[in-house]
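User: Can you predict the 3D structure for this chain?
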Amino acid sequence: MAQTEKKTGLLRRTSSSKKPLKEKVVLMYEEIFAKEDPTKNNPRFWDELFLMKVNLEYLEGKLESLDGDEVMRVKDNINSLFHHCVQALSEEHQIKVVNALQTLCALFRGVHQKNKSATGFDIINMLMGFDKAELRMKELMESLDSLLCGDGSESLKSLCLKLLLCLVTVTDNISQNTILEYVMINSIFEAILQILSDVSSRSQHGYDSVVLLALLVNYRKYESVNPYIVKLSIVDDEPTLDGMGMVIHHALTDYNRQYKDKEEENQGGFFSTLTSMVGSMFIADADEKLSVQTNEAILLALYEAVHLNRNFITVLAQSHPEIDMSATPAAPVPASPTTPLGTTPPSLDMMNNPELPLDPNLQTSNLLITFLKYSSIIMQDTKDEHRLNSARLCLIILTCIAEDQYADAFLHDDNMNFRVNLHRMPMRHRKKAADKNVPSRPLVCAVLDLMVEFIVTHMMKEFPMDLYVRCIQIIHKLICYQKKCRVRLHYTWRDFWSALINLLKFLLSNETILLAKHNIFQLALQVVNLFNMFITYGDTFLPTPSSYDELYYEIIRMHQVFDNLYCMVLRVSTNAGQWKEPASKVTHALVNVRAIINHFNPKIESYAAVNHISQLSEDQVLEVVRSNYDTLTLKLQDGLDQFERYSEQPREAGFFKELVRSISLNVRKNVSLSTMSQDLLLKEFSSIS
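Assistant: Here is the predicted structure, written as structure tokens:
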């Protein structure tokens, strides 16, 4: 009974024997859902309706409750309601505009909820009528564009964006939302750019604008020409691109800070609380309004910007002081039950100031550093599908960055050094590194650190093969750039080589378990070819001649791993089976590694025998290596510095379809909670008569 009362929009019961009173707006809705034209008895019906506070729950519930016959019976009235909502958006009376926007949201949601199995054309007919749909949507999009670009209320602009997000996400699969064809034809792309380029607008509406753009870009992106993709790819306006970067930067920074705060709270019971500490960052919390989907949306926006627009790469590297954003005064944001992350970036002047402060205690930062820190959090735990997908998207973004020549140039620029404090997974066998001990280095070192960290911390039963393959590919692309441009990077290469060898050791130890699920030979081949890159071209990009000697020392020291790998791939490649060909490729790739081992091991043993030494020191082994290079014969291997460039279609299409579905569901949930801060909106405009 209580549920029935809630749905019918009751005000109160006067007594137990009397019928409950109904709000006037509910009575007017009932007239709309009757067969007769509501203006027949009241010519001012529509004017009066939009002066009434919208009862969203009743309106949506009523639309959801109609069966097919009832819908056709009242279709003309629903079409008329939609038409008058659009007309009301041009009214000077702001309360009418607010109520019209909220009514449109209820119409879109209610009709779609009832008709999930209906075709897009049926829904368009139900809402607007086939014959009027093009005109109605043109009028709607023009009105929304005017409201977003005008000098009017920020609350109205916020509500316009909420309506657009509601419209975009009413279907689980946005590409099945036929109404969006009209949003493609009547573009609001320029309105979104105007918001992002303006400091005040961006601070209040930046997050919703960026998420909306990311979703629109993914509408039928593989099936037809999407104008939002075309337009985003050619944006070259610096303030606009900077504005987009700042919104993304702020959202990721906010997330990083939330995580760090939780990490500090949980310092006491380190291992016992690790799971809850990490996990709680990914579960929607009523107080913090923080969820993985929210950050996936921002991550998707970053991906689309990096992938589609080469000019955005410059935004990644734009340096600014790493200030505490929580202390940064922000423009007031319209109150809402769930204010999303990323709506109050720091001031444009501070971000764009080329003269950075010379305070040695003030660390400089940029979007790429913030993204790397964010990735280091996300990539710590990949045990469930949500976190796995977030980590995959981080690695796809890094793949796009690693392929870009300009990005590679600033990553390796020795004059652009940063101290990047990545988050590291707690492990029993190592101490937690102190942030202050991280040196200031070119950014490529932080990228390599992130890749190495992932490699050494995810050798587990549920092996994330796809992520490992992506990690090694990113490393390979960076080393190809170093080889091509002869960049001698001062990096802890020995730790890097050690991580790769331990990965090979893990693959060998778990051959049977892993082969049941994965082609481990693909990953082994990539790792061996990284060693081949160092062996063949290392003298052109390793920092010193002694670094090249140390490479040989590590190969010789860990020769048993390479010997075991060779025995395993030889065994598999000489037997018939599905892995014969991939194993054979690893056999051939090991030729130079084995040549080094077979050449130097006898020399080392001979040196030890002649000098009566049971166990040689590192310096003694290096001495043998240096004095026997001349007699070493290696084979030149082709294609080591070649790689396949990233392409979203067709390989990643399925991943992005599911990702966008997940983001859409989350955005829809947040919009349904936050679109309708009615009392606040109506109070704001109550003085307008």
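Residues 1-15, 270-274, 276-294, 323-361 have pLDDT under 50 and may be disordered. The first helix runs from residue 2 to 7.
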